[in-house]
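dumping the sequnces here before i forget
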Amino acid sequence: MDAQVFDIGDTDVAWCPGCGNFSILKILQRALAELQIGPTSLVLVSGIGQAAKIPHYFRTNIFNGLHGRALPAATAIKAADPALTVIAESGDGDMYGEGGNHFIHTIRRNPDITNIVHNNMVYGLTKGQASPTSQVGFKTPVQVGGVFLEAFNPLAVAIALDAGFVARAFSDDVEQTKEILKKALKHKGYSLVDIFQPCVSFNKLNTHQWFKENCYYLGDSYDPSDRNQAFKRATETRKLPLGVFYVNSKRKSFEENIGMQDKPPLYERDLDTKQLSALIEKFKSEN
Amino acid sequence: MAKDAALRADDVSIVLCGQAGMGIQTVEGILTRMLKLAGYNVFATKEYMSRVRGGNNSTQIRVSSRPVSAFANRIDLLIPLNKGAVQHLQKRISQETIVLAETEVVGDEAVSGRFRFVEAPFTKIATDIGNKVYSNVVAVGMLAGLLGMELSNVCDYVKQFFSTKTADIVQKNVQAAEAGFRLAEDLARREKISIDISYGANVKDQILLSGSEAVALGAIAGGCNFVSAYPMSPSTSVLVFLAKHAKDFGIIAEQAEDEIAAMNMVIGAWYAGARAMVTTSGGGFALMTEGLSLAGMLEMPVVIHLGQRPGPATGLPTRTEQADLELALYAGHGEFPRIIFAPGKIEDAFYLTQKAFNLADKYQVPVFILTDQYFLDSYYNIHPFDLSDMKVEKCFIKTQKDYKRYELTDNGVSPRGIPGFGKGLVVVDSDEHDTQGHITEDLDLRVAMVDKRLKKAESIKNEIIPPELVGPDDYKTLIVCWGSTYNVVSEAVRDLSRGDVSLLCFNQVYPLHGKTADYLKKADKTIIIESNATSQFGKLIKLYTGIEVDEKILKYSGLSFTVEEITESLRSILD
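..and the predicted 3d for all of it:
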């Protein structure tokens, strides 16, 4: 499949020139095409923010919902029709701030969806306030003395919750990011791909250059099945590792737990009127 | 029921009162089913505290020769199970109330003369049988005996009720019921307690159903296959019922991390082709309002069961009120159409919830079922539902390649596609969007989209359920009520027995039916009855008809209106 199947054609893109979002858009389209996942069987679910606009530049089914609420909607979409490939994609403010509670509980619920988070450590659409992943000391028009809240560590949280697939990528690294996304999409159950992405307009601290200098890849010898090791690497701060931190394929997915795995979609279900009559009949003598 | 003469001997109000966990529900559960099976009309409702143990909870059971469906203030027979019970119910106890209890439960009150005390040694009888745990069944047997049931029916039902227990436990419970029954015979003779209730017509073939069961069954009948909720009294019972029957009916029942997630799940589920609902109460619904607005923008169907309880904030968690009408009416930022049902009778809850799914799907709007604690926790015998004309009307389409989710149409309703069903793509966006569904800031298109969404209200108007007029057409006084007060007010109006008074009951409170103003204009005097402090429905009527209702009867203590309260209030207005 050619990634061009996702081309939306001529459209007015709302991202700044040089934004990491462009790269993520292209990489995701290529990863999907290589996995033979086409536009009609895919649903891109997003919240609000600059990253959350990504579905609008994608020729596919899209559910662009509310700020922070992509995950519950994505969970239900996948449950209602397990044949769909469902991606919940938004920025760090959306997924980790406004949607923080859903982030935690979606990992616990373990729907077979891929959660892609554009992590630029700043709020873009609202023009430069701190995000949950902003580094301590980061100055903004609101955090005038610098951020003093400890940065949210999504990978460590996900590993602590025994998420099935936890990875971090960097938007400038096209091939590596594409391979990570493909693995995430193939994983059965919830997968998190946190993608470092420079914000050229509002984050003058975590720039393209900064990420290049401060990130490195987990080597070939790294074993992602070791949860303690994964947690240790996820909490490194001096240099930030990239790659697949943790994989646990043993957890049952939400769809398996609710008996929807490999089942026809809910819209094909019909009411069994006889059974309903029988249930109502029971109220003549029991309950 | 009075000392000598039989006062309303064909309509008895029994109240059981005790601490949470003392077994009131067991007595209630056995007695009401047993009576219904034998062919008696029964009604039961409860008021309880927000605690798992202790406190004072009470259940009223009415048994009558006529169909009975409303909370009455009067207590004919009181079974207090703990010392605080008489105190708890003092406002409802009269000199005609017969208190059947052990002496130590009533204490000095026994000789106060404020009620008629009749000693009923439940615990002693139970202990003689082998264990004081049987005392509840002794009470059941006694009540069944006083009400004139046949002993064989009582024993048969007790056997059935305990059928999963050991033979010994079954036997002991039957013994307990028999002993209670004999006590009743003795008391009836000795204390001249005479109750004469006749069997109701066809009661045996009727079903005994609560408001919450009716809502849940209505959801199933509406094709509900996805429910998500966060537990909150009094709405949880609907989730519990659907979860219990989820497997049999192919329903996904998911407890969400919060109401925000529940609502967004339900919207996502409808998007992917499910028929989904949330069930919640006021505080939970407050969290859902952002999602409600999303449903308005996406033009996604949603069904919301909102079981009201007194607010603001946590309020009285286990009590009742009708004070969230305005919340349901105005919830959600921005402007979009909605439908609000408020069932009055148990059967209405079934038919309206079923209909809610079809209307939500047809017009792609939120549809509310507005109930309350009193409605959800009350039950009585009703005719089984007629499913013959009932259809799950699925309104989605198989999409073509050039499908546009928000195509502008004459009535504002755009054919709804589902991702993966057909060759088209289904694009929905919480931002203002173009016909395709993509984000836009084309302000002319914005106007067209607002008009399109609001235009749906025109078609919805043609389907408004008319209010029900109870009483003569040539009334002088018109009483207005909505939702759960229906049965209480109906009985009160019947008791008034005045030929010039009629009652107008609304099962659908929004949009308001076009004939509302005509009904009100015909009356010399109008009276509205609502379980809230500010007459929310009265304000709604004023807004849409320009008519201010003359008199208001409002209650907001957390307890339902009683029949007697309404009758007295109406008399003081009318006499």
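The radius of gyration of chain A is 20 Å.
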